[in-house]
TrEMBL record:
PROSITE patterns membership: HAMP (PS50885), HIS_KIN (PS50109)
Protein name as annotated: histidine kinase
Transmembrane segments: 21-42, 85-108
Keyword Transmembrane on entry: yes
GO molecular function: ATP binding
Top-level taxon: Bacteria
Residue ranges occupied by any HAMP domain in the UniProt entry: 109-162
Lineage of the species this protein comes from: Bacteria, Bacillati, Actinomycetota, Actinomycetes, Streptosporangiales
Keyword set, alphabetical order: ATP-binding, Kinase, Membrane, Nucleotide-binding, Phosphoprotein, Transferase, Transmembrane, Transmembrane helix, Two-component regulatory system
Subcellular location: Cell membrane
Length: 394
């Protein structure tokens, strides 16, 4: 049999039980005291017959019989009154129980109303509206102290986020300029007339590769920072199948060089989502790049983009050695890599899947990493499914 679902043990439920119990105990105590005083008054009201001194024996016997009859009748009345008083007390106690629960729930609701307001307002505040404050009115009590503390925390967060936004806005120009200057200097040095030593050409090539790696790392930093602030330029309906096909086409040379077998037969055209085409393309490129880079020569990649009831899913699977799920779950964190024992090299900056996770989160989705029992990795990106109202073609 299915167990009955118990109500959640909320603060209001606990306060209701507490106040209801107090009201009920108070009512029960009042009824007990009333019954005790009532019974005492009834006991004291029993009449004691006086000593009758009749003149004859027959009259005395008749008087005693009459007194006994009166006493029996009086005791019956007292018993009926006691039963009626007990029944009325039990009925009043039942009414008090219902009233106590209702009063307890009402009082608990009024006590917790400011906390519910604080909770609702805090949930509504995000990185885009950190300027809002709770501003709870009222006396300087514990609730207002809590609200003022949260307002102070929001102010510090707003200051911190503003500083990070300024850094993101300035970092691109300030850091790319010296990189471009260094790259131009290398080109000038190699392009000078006259024979260039082979060591110089080799050194220039190595430096260009390192500069390209720094440039990619910088781009990853900036993308990660923008996504964490929820910057989504140009929201539109985007087909996951299109961005996946574009990512596979962009890595066709690398796929052919490593002799990888790609199965993209389940890339449908009905997996649409709302968001930035640029960021979603970057997300698909990173997932595919991760599958190509961290794979064995002659391995395989399986890609699918499908639509569910309310979600669009991008799944990329690869073969390889058996991985530990505990380590795989950490790959979405920046600079997390499993090492050369998995990839055969130390390529990559460790930002690829963390950027995928941040882009998915910025679009209201999730990234799930699963170590396949037979070996390899399954990467699943789940995003909200776009509807026809959003401009998706039928």
């Amino acid at each position: 049999m299915r167990r009955l679902a118990l109500p959640a043990r909320t603060a209001r439920l606990r306060f209701t039980a507490l106040y209801g119990s107090l009201f009920l105990l108070s009512g029960a105590g009042l009824l007990v005291i009333t019954n005790l005083f009532g019974l005492a008054a009834v006991g004291n009201s029993r009449a004691v017959p006086g000593q009758v001194r009749p003149s004859g024996q027959a009259a005395l016997a008749a008087a005693e019989r009459h007194i006994m009859a009166l006493q029996a009748e009086l005791e019956g009345l007292h018993a009926a009154q006691a039963r009626q008083l007990l029944l009325g007390s039990l009925l009043a106690l039942g009414v008090m129980a219902v009233v106590s629960v209702a009063l307890g729930r009402t009082v608990a609701g009024r006590v917790l109303r400011p906390l519910r307001t604080i909770t609702a307002t805090t949930r509504r505040i995000s990185a885009d509206n950190l300027h809002e404050r709770l501003a709870v009115p009222g006396p300087a009590d514990e609730v207002k102290a809590l609200a003022d503390t949260i307002d102070g925390l929001l102010e510090r967060l707003e200051t911190s986020f503003a500083a990070q936004r300024r850094f993101v806005a300035n970092a691109s120009h300030e850091l790319r300029t010296p990189l471009a200057t260094m790259r131009a200097s290398l080109d000038v040095a190699v392009a000078k007339p006259g024979p260039v030593p082979a060591q110089t050409v080799a050194l220039a090539g190595r430096l260009r590769a390192e500069l390209d790696q720094v440039d990619r790392l910088l781009e990853g930093f900036l993308t990660l920072a923008r996504n964490q602030h929820g910057d989504l330029p140009g929201r539109e309906a985007v087909s996951l199948g299109d961005v996946v096909s574009g990512g596979l086409a962009a890595r066709a040379a690398d796929i052919a060089r490593r002799n990888l077998a790609v199965d993209a037969g389940d890339v449908g055209g009905d997996a649409w989502t709302l968001g930035s085409r640029t960021l979603l393309s970057r997300m698909a490129d990173n997932v595919i790049d991760n599958a190509v880079t961290h794979n064995r020569d002659g391995g395989w990649i399986r890609v699918s983009a499908t639509a569910g009831h309310a979600t669009a899913r991008l799944v990329v699977e690869t073969g390889g050695p058996v991985l530990a799920q505990e380590q795989v779950a950490l790959l979405a964190e920046p600079f997390r890599r499993l090492g050369a024992d998995r990839t055969g090299s130390d390529r990559g900056s460790g930002l690829g899947l963390s950027i995928v996770a941040s882009i998915a989160a910025a679009h209201g989705g999730t990234l799930d990493l699963y170590a396949r029992p037979e070996g390899g990795l399954r990467v699943t990106v789940t995003l909200p499914l776009a509807t026809e109202r959003a401009g998706v073609p039928a």
